[in-house]
């Protein structure tokens, strides 16, 4: 597993860049993580989604899919794609330090 | 006093559970009522074959009432809501049914209106779904008149019923146009929101190479945000476009509408929040869930429903007898994947094991993840099995609810490091 320095801390990541240990995540890592994903400016809406992802993960043990995010986060699917053009569920999960959302078979 | 058992839904799960429970209890031990909004039981696997003229809608529909054993009442009405506090079901026709145990089997519903443009111009003219009898029948006509152009097959997002069906549609379309000797005039594309042909690595690779072999284009990570029927194109949320002459689209799915009308029972999409091993609702211990209605992490498929039947039936009886609940459901699922030219693949998996190569149910059984005529025959025979064995709730010798492992090949981990 590759590890990486983020905001001065050593973090273990999966091959595709998700946190192996979500408890290693800290809020001050978010700007660096977002930059990696090509997001230079974090708006309130970005933060709203990131906090929502984190909360859902801690409550349910897995991150929401895009469709569920659109229904429950207060941000529509269209807006989610404007915020995270490379795919809201995956990118927001990476920035929120939670595992890759797994859609079921 | 006799137990009051109410079963919501007279499809695959509701019918087989009601029949199994009817056998388990004498007439004076339990009253069993099945509620459904109509008396038409559709053999849903048959819908795939209708567009290609391989099945006819009237052949795959039978009365629900006739699939139920004597001593089971069918009450025809939509469900309005379930009140978990008073243990009662409120029906749209005003009837209130009190229950000691409730079985939820109301499946999944299609939600085409949730996708922008899907039910607008061109719906049922140049874009169709084969997930309804009307849609698959209309598609048969459209395919018959389709002589050249671009056929695009897309499912908007998971979960969908029978998640391999869109792939099967592609394979059968390839065969169909070959038979009509116009395959070279037709481009076929499979457009998926997933990052591969299927969800899990081993089967995803096998199915991707089968698509390539049949010259079917695979377009991945495409989240359809809009369907433009006027100009004939799919538009993804990230701005990509796929043009089509004929669009075959599987709409979003959700739970039955009454679930969202019953506080505490369902998730965001209207599926019932369910313990994945006991199949008990997390809202109330006297509610059990079977089939597509259940929010559990496995396929929405008839085979899953069949395998769940044993645990659900057992747990209803245990609950009513005050005994501990059985937590043995493992998410077992298997599907025949029709690949055209009288061949099919078979996949078999559960919560923890992805679809692997090998044989089912044992070493000498049907080949897994490999095209064969035997699997195609298995798929055809399944319709007989469905009406005569599965729905009546009979035991099948040699087929267990839990997933067999003896015939399976263990995968070689893709990321494993060579030993130095």
> How would you describe the shape of chain A?
globular
Kindly state the percentage of residues in helix of chain A: 40-55%
Catalogue the unreliable spans of chain B: 414-420
In whole angstroms, the N-to-C terminal distance of chain B is 71 Å
Provide the residue-averaged pLDDT of chain B. Answer: 94
Radius of gyration of chain B: 22 Å
Number of helical elements of chain B: 7
Distance between the termini of chain A: 26 Å
Major beta sheet of chain B, specifics?
A: 5 strands, parallel
Q: In the CATH classification, which architecture of the largest domain in chain B applies?
A: 3-Layer(bba) Sandwich
The tally of structural domains of chain B comes to 2
User: What average pLDDT do the residues of chain A reach?
Assistant: 89
Structural notes for this entry:
The complex is a heterodimer of chains A (105) and B (420). With 105 residues, chain A is mainly alpha-helical. Chain A has a single domain (3-95), classed as Arc Repressor Mutant, subunit A (Orthogonal Bundle). Helix content of chain A is 44%, strand content 8%. The relative contact order of chain A is 0.19. Chain B is globular. Chain B is built from seven helices and 26 strands. Chain B is of the alpha/beta class and 420 residues long. Chain B folds into two domains: 3-110 and 254-320, 3-Layer(bba) Sandwich (FAD/NAD(P)-binding domain); 119-252, FAD/NAD(P)-binding domain (3-Layer(bba) Sandwich). In chain B, helix 1 (12-24) runs parallel beside helix 6 (302-320). The longest helix of chain B has 19 residues, at 302-320. Chain A binds chain B through residues 15, 65-68, 71-72, 77-78, 80-81, 85-87, 103-105, and chain B through 157-159, 163, 194, 198-200, 221, 223, 225, 237-238, 252, 268-269, 297-299, 333, 349, 415.
